[in-house]
Design brief:
Strand order of the largest sheet: 1-11-10-9-12-13
CATH topology of the largest domain: Rossmann fold
Strand content: 15-25%
Number of helices: 17
Largest sheet: 6 strands, parallel
Shape: globular
Structural class: alpha/beta
CATH class of the largest domain: Alpha Beta
CATH architecture of the largest domain: 3-Layer(aba) Sandwich
């Protein structure tokens, strides 16, 4: 496989790069239309619609909505049956994820001003959260940990988990992860119909306050359409990574890093930027040598051919500028002195510094949630964290003195807006 080569010094670079980075995330009209129909059907028909879609898409033969609910006792059984190494890995990852997100936890606060008014902010957790766990290309027990643990830290107590279970297949590691994070409510439902059920409710699934978790194009489009009825974390596109290197990293390490992103999905994007043309040649040679041995080589080959590239830049600084223009989900600074580049980075979901910080470790056990903004939304969005599961209420307790002191200012501004009743309500406290 010949991976695409680009050069920032070429007069056609910008045109070629924009074509490469134009994404597959934009929802095609047929997906948008079909998703709208699925959501409408679930709203109108409830469980009956879920059963129809589960039979059509996942080949599940269920008599009623209750058959879609997973037995919570099976979670504990799956955990107990895990090989010791897998059980220990889940527990250790969960411990590190919780430790990291505890650092994010904010507290309510208040102060008393010079007029004796008490002002502040009260933080409370969301009451009920829906979590979508993908299950199409692979199983993701790591996503169970990366979504539910930050919510637990925030104080969320009630969860409804949905995940596709094609032909009734239930991944034991995912079930074990559900046990570890103490989930008792999960359903064998995937796709846009799962999002619709979480947003609007059915006879079996009660609606939630917010839906989090990654998914494919149908899930992303469904989340976009239900937003407003319920909260969402973000609308995720295909996963992506940019690796910037100065040529000091072992070549095979970075090839495996490219593969690790590409194996997710044929639409995943893996880009490597370097000023050294000879190093890029070595990367290309090792891709050709190692790809035939990769377990998911067909998916990797499609991903790298369709949306991957090796890009020669004029400098490392220019490489960071290119990365900032993309605002990638993952940015790996595989250079000898990553701190020297860090201050130049303006937009990235997660930044991995140095040769020993591959994105793969971030996916599982480093600590921060791996649910990250994609498709350029890192320009204005943040990784999933504790803040996503808390909401704030302003606290205003005015003293008699404070109300009198503020009344005339409020009345003046209210009349300036043409709101006389506001002015009179303020002045009533100012007498």
């Amino acid at each position: 496989m010949n991976m695409r080569r680009l050069d920032t010094s070429s007069p056609r670079f910008q045109e070629e790069f924009e074509r490469l980075s134009a994404a597959a995330m934009d929802s095609a009209e047929d997906i948008e239309r079909a998703t709208k129909e699925i959501i409408a059907s679930v709203r109108q028909r409830g469980d009956a619609a879920l059963l129809d879609y589960s039979a059509r898409f996942d080949r599940l033969d269920c008599a009623d909505g209750a058959d879609l609910k997973l037995d919570p006792d099976s979670f504990g059984q799956a955990f107990a049956a895990l090989p010791a190494a897998q059980r220990t890995a889940l527990e250790y990852a969960a411990e590190r994820i919780e430790h990291y997100h505890q650092k994010q936890l904010r507290q309510s606060w208040s102060y008393t001003d010079e007029l004796g008014n008490e002002l502040g902010q009260r933080l409370t957790p969301l009451a009920r959260v829906g979590v979508y766990i993908p299950g199409g290309q692979a199983a993701y027990p790591s996503t169970v940990l990366m979504t539910i643990i930050p919510a637990r830290v925030a104080g969320v107590e009630e969860f409804a988990v949905t995940m596709p279970c094609p032909e009734g297949t239930r991944n034991p590691l995912v079930l074990a992860a559900l046990h570890l994070v103490e989930v008792r409510e999960a359903y064998a439902v995937g796709g846009a119909q799962a999002v619709a059920a979480l947003a609007f409710g059915t006879e079996t699934i009660r609606p939630v306050d917010k839906i989090v978790g990654p998914g494919g194009a149908w899930v992303a489009e469904a989340k976009r359409q239900v937003f407003g009825r319920t909260g969402i974390d973000l609308i995720a596109g295909p996963t992506e990574i940019i690796i910037i290197t100065d040529g000091s990293a072992p070549v095979d390490w970075l090839v495996q890093d490219l593969f690790s992103q590409a194996e997710h999905d044929a639409l995943a994007q893996s880009l490597l930027l370097c000023p050294d043309a000879n190093y890029l040649n070595r990367i290309a040679e090792r891709i050709a040598a190692l790809l035939p041995r990769a377990a998911r080589r067909d998916i990797i080959a499609q991903s790298l051919a369709n949306r991957g590239a090796l890009i020669q830049t004029r400098s490392l600084a220019e490489a960071v500028d290119v990365a900032n223009s993309v605002a990638p989900e993952h940015l790996q600074l595989a250079v000898a002195e990553p701190q020297a580049l860090l201050d130049r980075v303006r937009h990235a979901g997660a930044i991995f510094l140095g040769h020993h910080s591959p994105e793969a470790l971030g996916d599982y056990v480093a600590g921060p949630s791996h649910v990250l903004p994609t498709y350029g939304t890192a320009r204005f969005s943040s990784p999933l964290g504790v803040d996503d599961f808390q909401k704030a209420s302003s606290i205003i307790a005015l003293s008699e003195q404070g109300a009198k002191a503020l009344a005339q200012t409020a009345a003046t501004l209210a009349r300036g807006e043409g709101l006389e009743a506001h002015a009179l309500a303020a002045e009533a406290r100012g007498q």
